[in-house]
Specification:
Radius of gyration: 20 Å
CATH class of the largest domain: Alpha Beta
Number of domains: 3
Structural class: alpha/beta
Number of strands: 13
Number of helices: 11
Strand content: 15-25%
Order of helices and strands: EHEHHEEEEHEHEHEEHHEEEHHH
Helix content: 25-40%
Largest sheet: 5 strands, mixed
CATH architecture of the largest domain: 3-Layer(aba) Sandwich
Strand order of the largest sheet: 2-1-3-10-4
């Protein structure tokens, strides 16, 4: 067993907390192993003023870190990278693989109101009220239920977004965030409410951590096999295959919900594709008994994608013009 493991992740407070969590999992399972966390900046971290969909895909969060898995300098080379799984591309570059997925935290999205707000839900907001979210998936789904509200991009880490929301001069009446991030940073007391899939399906992989390794690194794979979660892996592999089969990325409105019953071995997967303006949508589900996690989870995602494609999901995705998203907000 490798006695020292170098863990890479992004520089944000949330990313560091996530990397430290993986460090704790490894050291608890392998007490003779010492882990060191390295927090590094990525292109996505540098671009805080523009919506994510306007300048690239998920590689914004991963490329600089991936380069360090293969760097020749021993003092800089990483052994594993910890990502928010929702930020990982469904197809990784040659030489890299998803080594494991840790136990998921609440994958839902949540509503956060300003400290002095009298509102407890979107239902009571006045027409034209501004909802802050940088996610096309979130705004597209909410437009189906709340066409009278306005949706504007808000960037920055969680604390920055909450400060913008609480600023008396803000135009935002509320913001939408991932529940898992709020809980990991101890900010759960600021959650006004959470959404279930009747209002908003969550992002693929949301709430889970994906750990990236060098392809074929058997030593790191054996470590990750000991700390990762079977139920979460089952759900997330199906979700990721659904997105891959639909040919969607982090900047298109694909939402999911999933559940795995360890007693019956039954996986339930639900998905939705929504047009940017919220006017068109395709929604469906697929259930499958899981006997082989890699084979059957992937097959469940593929079958659901085929159902949704037959109902017009791919047509909705192909018609999306990201240059026109701002005008639809």
């Amino acid at each position: 067993m490798q006695k020292q493991i170098r863990i890479g992740g992004r520089q944000s407070q949330l990313a560091v907390v996530q990397s430290e969590h993986v460090k704790d999992l490894i050291e608890e399972r392998f007490p003779d192993t010492e882990c060191t966390v390295f927090a590094l900046q990525t292109l996505g971290d540098q671009q805080q003023s523009r919506p994510l969909y306007s300048f690239g895909g998920k590689a914004l969060w991963t490329k600089e870190l991936e380069d360090l898995l293969y760097v020749k300098d021993d003092s800089r080379r990483l052994d594993i990278i910890v990502h928010s799984l929702k930020d990982m591309p469904t197809i990784l570059p040659d030489g890299f693989e998803l080594g494991g997925i840790t136990k998921r935290v609440d994958p839902s999205d949540c509503l956060v109101m300003p400290l002095d707000s009298p509102h407890k839900s979107l239902d009571t907001l006045e027409p034209g009220s501004v909802v802050g979210t940088s996610s096309v998936r979130r705004s597209a789904q909410l437009k189906r239920k709340y066409p009278h509200l306005r949706f504007e991009s808000i960037r920055g880490n969680l604390h920055t977004r909450i400060r913008k929301l609480d600023d008396p001069a803000t135009s935002y009446k509320c913001i939408i965030l991932a529940t898992a991030g709020m809980k990991r940073l101890g900010l759960q007391d600021r959650i006004t409410s959470t959404f279930n899939h009747s209002v908003m399906y969550h992002a693929v992989g949301q709430g889970a951590l994906g750990i990236e390794i060098r392809q074929g690194d058997q030593i790191m794979q054996e470590v990750l096999d000991e700390i990762c979660d079977f139920s979460t892996t089952t759900c997330c592999l199906a979700e990721r295959q659904l997105m891959r089969s639909l040919e969607g990325g982090c900047s298109v409105p694909i939402g999911v919900e999933s559940h795995y019953d360890e007693t019956t071995k039954l996986l339930h997967l639900g998905g939705i594709v929504v047009s940017v303006d919220g006017q068109q949508s395709v929604e469906n589900t697929q259930d499958m008994v899981i006997n082989d996690v890699m084979r059957d989870s992937v097959e469940c995602g593929r079958l659901l994608a085929n159902k949704m494609i037959e109902s017009g999901a791919r047509r909705i995705l192909q018609e999306i013009n990201l240059d026109k998203i701002d005008s639809a907000q």
